[in-house]
Amino acid sequence: MLTGKQKRFLRSQAHHLNPIFQVGKGCVNENMVKQISEALEARELIKVGILQSCEMDKDEVAIQLAKGTKSEIVQIIGSTIVLYKESTENKSLQLP
C-alpha cells in the first residue's frame, strides 16, 4: 500500500503525463491488462483514459486494472486513472 506522502509524490510526477491507454466500449479485457502490465514495467507510472463509450464505472475499471496488473491506484481524476507499479528492471522513481 502507498502512503499519502507517496501518492502525493506520484501525483506530481504523473501531472505532465498523457494517457497512453484508453478504455472504451470493450471495457477491460485480458489483452489490455497484459499491455498495461508491460507499460507499467517499462514506465512505472502511467495514465489510462476512460472513454464515454465505456459501459463500466470508472472506479470499477480502475479496480480491475489494478488487480489485473498488480499495481496501485494513485488517483482517479475525471475520466483518467493514474496507476503505479514498481518496476523490477527499469526502476526510475524513488518514492519518499
Automatic annotation (TrEMBL):
GO molecular function ontology, one term from the record: RNA binding
Xref: InterPro entries: RNA-binding_CRM (IPR001890), RNA-binding_domain (IPR051925), RNA-binding_YhbY (IPR017924), YhbY-like_sf (IPR035920)
Swiss-Prot/TrEMBL keywords: RNA-binding
Domain called CRM: residue spans: 1-96
Top-rank taxon: Bacteria
Protein name: RNA-binding protein
Organism: Anaerobacillus isosaccharinicus
Gene name of the encoded protein: yhbY
